[in-house]
Amino acid sequence: MAELIGQREFPADDRVLADVLEYITGSFEEAGCPPRALMQLEVSAEEIFVNIAHYGYPEGTDGKAKITLSLAEGPAAVVEFADRGVAFDPLAKPDADITLSAEERRIGGLGILMVKKAMDNVSYRREDGMNILTLEKRFA
Amino acid sequence: MTITKQQDGSNLTVLLGGRLDTSTAPQLDAELKGSLGGVKNLVLDMKDLAYLSSAGLRVILAAQKTMNRQGKMVVRHVNETIMEIFDVTGFIDILTIE
Asked: Is the pTM here over 0.80, yes or no?
């Protein structure tokens, strides 16, 4: 069973990004998560939160993102992002082609690829009008 | 983040420190756009860079594209964590890392 360690609601606005990342890394650092896994959680959380802030809600509306932190067996750090923005599954798109040259390369999709590689599990579900994206990172 | 430039003729070294993320990437983007005119050799020194997200990768890719047209770009002193980000994103094959 996962043990809840915190839950907080943030405005879906990239101006609070530093607060969001500090909340997540601070909480898991206290829970014993080592620096390398913390950094991977941080990079991944930035991608997900910025996506919600930039694309989740129509411009000019005050959207929110609720972040729930828990510890699962493993142990594993679990971060859940819930928002009431437009339905969007970031995992549905094909992965960015990382074999292309700089000239051919477009940056879209790289962020989510980083998330998939850095995390042990990433899942998405649409539930009660909410996008729920969950990141899971095991640590020893 | 901190951005320190050292220019010697057409050689430009940019020392990056701190966090290159969604909040700070526009700062580096503007700094590079304003400095790359006439530069033939660009060095990005990442010795003091602690954190890099995809917003930062976007700026690094733009600099690489510019330098492909007018000269050469080298990335130096990449730490283990940032190397891993270059690795999973395939940037390791695009950049010249010393």
From this structure: yes
